[in-house]
Write a structure and sequence with these properties.
CATH architecture of the largest domain: 2-Layer Sandwich
Family: Belongs to the class-II aminoacyl-tRNA synthetase family. Phe-tRNA synthetase alpha subunit type 1 subfamily.
Largest sheet: 7 strands, mixed
Radius of gyration: 45 Å
Distance between the termini: 88 Å
Number of strands: 10
Number of helices: 11
Helix content: 25-40%
Cofactor: Mg(2+)
Bound molecules: phenylalanine
CATH superfamily of the largest domain: Bira Bifunctional Protein, Domain 2
Organism: Gemmiger formicilis
GO molecular function: ATP binding; catalytic activity, acting on a protein; magnesium ion binding; phenylalanine-tRNA ligase activity; transferase activity; tRNA binding
Keywords: Aminoacyl-tRNA synthetase, ATP-binding, Coiled coil, Cytoplasm, Ligase, Magnesium, Metal-binding, Nucleotide-binding, Protein biosynthesis
Oligomer: single chain
Length: 340
């Protein structure tokens, strides 16, 4: 019997080395520890042992059985641990992998320029007013000194929504709305979308303007030019200056076109300024006395100036964009160039 136990112990020790997974662990148990296993076989063969030796041999078999069970327990823990380690390794997150970058949007060049203009004028005490995009004939034309059948209406070929309702052709209607609500001193900026039946490389049927209006006692073109100088210097550089040229708008008298000295060549002449040294940037003028009267403001006491900036035009000049269409195509290759 001693001999048999020795052999079985050696067999179990050898078999243990092969138990590397659950299936083999189960085979091990079947072969050695189950009811019909080899360890149970030892107990059965106790019958053949002489009666007087049985207690001692039985004790030896029992001890061996305990050893074999402990062996199985250790193997089982080993297999369990290996399985857990394998699972952990498979589920590991590699924290050194580059993260997925979430795309963030950025401000549109029109918005950037609009904010920049607002910043400059807000610093001079201007407030912001936003009027309606669908405007009545009265605010868009008539009270701005452009009565029905006035030829100046042709300058702004218009989208009519109904008989006397238009998609506003200019933000100048905001002047009327502000002067109806407030009395001087007035200092407002009215940014917004405007619409005209007009389309080519530098014109779009929808574009943005920034109206400016100042009304107070003793306001003159000098005040206009002083403020516009500050404005162009903030946008195009400290060295640039403005030039006023006579022009015509029905709601200002006198009216001017405002040019900025070419920031590309410094005024010597280059393709950007078409070799003139000057670039036209906006229209402006002294508010027409009829417009003040139309809003119940006495032109003998008060005077004012107004200007209208085309935001696309400023953005195109500032960023060197040669086609206005690019602004509205939503091509990310274009828009990404304006990220901070
Ligand atoms: N509203 C004019 C235009 O759209 C611009 C302008 C505004 C001119 C204010 C003078 C004063 O062309």
């Amino acid at each position: 019997m001693e001999e048999k136990i020795k052999e079985l112990r050696a067999a179990i020790e050898q078999a243990s080395a092969d138990v590397t997974d659950k299936a083999r662990l189960s085979d091990f148990w079947q072969k050695y520890l189950s009811k019909n296993g080899e360890v149970a076989g030892l107990t059965k063969s106790l019958r053949d042992v002489p009666k007087e030796d049985r207690p001692a041999v039985g004790k030896t078999i029992n001890e061996f059985k305990q050893w074999a069970e402990a062996q199985y327990q250790a193997l089982s823990e080993q297999v369990e641990k290996a399985a857990l380690e394998a699972r952990n390794a498979a589920e590991t997150v590699d924290i050194t992998m580059p993260a997925k970058i979430r795309q963030t949007g950025s401000l549109h060049p029109i918005t950037l320029v609009k904010n920049e203009i607002i910043d400059v004028f807000a610093g001079m005490g201007f407030e912001i007013y936003e009027g309606p995009e669908i405007e009545d004939d009265d605010h868009n034309f008539t009270r701005l000194n452009v009565p029905k059948n006035h030829p100046a209406r042709d300058m702004q070929d218009t989208f009519y929504v109904a008989d006397d309702i238009v998609l506003r052709t200019q933000t100048s209607g905001g002047q009327i709305r502000v002067m109806d609500m407030e009395k001087p001193p007035i200092k407002v900026l009215a940014p917004g979308r405007v619409f005209r039946s007009d389309s080519d490389a530098t014109h779009s049927p929808m574009f943005h303007q920034m109206e400016g209006l100042v009304v107070d006692k003793g306001i003159t073109l000098c005040d206009l030019q002083g403020m516009l100088d500050k404005f162009v210097q903030a946008l195009f550089g400290a060295d640039v200056k403005t030039r006023l040229r006579p022009s015509y708008f029905p709601f200002t008298e006198p009216s001017v076109e405002v040019d900025v000295s070419c920031f590309e060549c410094g005024g010597k002449g280059c393709p950007l300024c078409k070799h003139t040294g000057w670039i036209e940037v906006l229209g402006a003028g002294v508010v027409h006395h009829s417009v003040l009267e139309n809003c119940g403001i006495d032109p003998n006491v008060y005077s004012g100036f107004a200007f209208g900036i085309g935001i696309e035009r400023i953005a195109m000049l500032k960023y060197g964009i040669n086609n206005i269409g690019l602004m509205f195509e939503n091509d990310l290759r274009f828009l990404k160039q304006f990220e901070d």
